[in-house]
Task: structure prediction
Amino acid sequence: MKRLLILILLIVSFACWGANDSRITQIRREYKNIDRHVKDLSHRTYDFDWTDAGTEVEIFKDNYGTIKLIKAGYYVESAKTYMRYYFKDKSLIFAFMEYWRYTIDTVSPGYSLAGVKPTHDYFYFSNNKLILWKGDQKNDTMCCWRLRSDTTMPSEILSDVNMILDSTYSR
Result:
C-alpha cells in the first residue's frame, strides 16, 4: 500500500511538472515571437503621474488593434521598475520585471550608479492565473500545488495591467 501511494504521488508530480513545462515552453515561444516582431507593431506612448517621478507606458498593437505588448516604466526617487506585459488572445501570458533599487543618494551632484544591479522576475500566466513565478524576489516554484497563494505580486500585476488599460482607453 505504501509503495502504491508513493507511485501515485510520483505520477501526479510528473504530470503536474509536465503540464506546466509545456505551457511555459509555449508562452516562451509566444513572447519571443512578439519581441521579434515588435518593430512591425503600432505603438503609442502615455505619461502618467502615478509615481513620485512619473510613469511612462508604451502600448504595442497588431494590425487588428489587439494589444500584444505593454512596456511600463515606474519611477520613484529611490528606485525604478521596468515591466513588460505580453498578451495572447487578449489575455496576459507573461510579465517581466526589472527592479532597480538605489542604495545611494541619487539627488546629490556627482552620484554614480556603478555597482547597482537590478533584480529580475518572470511571471507566467494561463487563463489570467499565475502558473510560475521565477526570479530574484521569489523562490523558484514549478509545480502547481506548491504555488503560494499568499503572495500579492501576481494580483498587483493584473491590477496594474487593468489600470493601464482603463487609463489609456479613456484618452
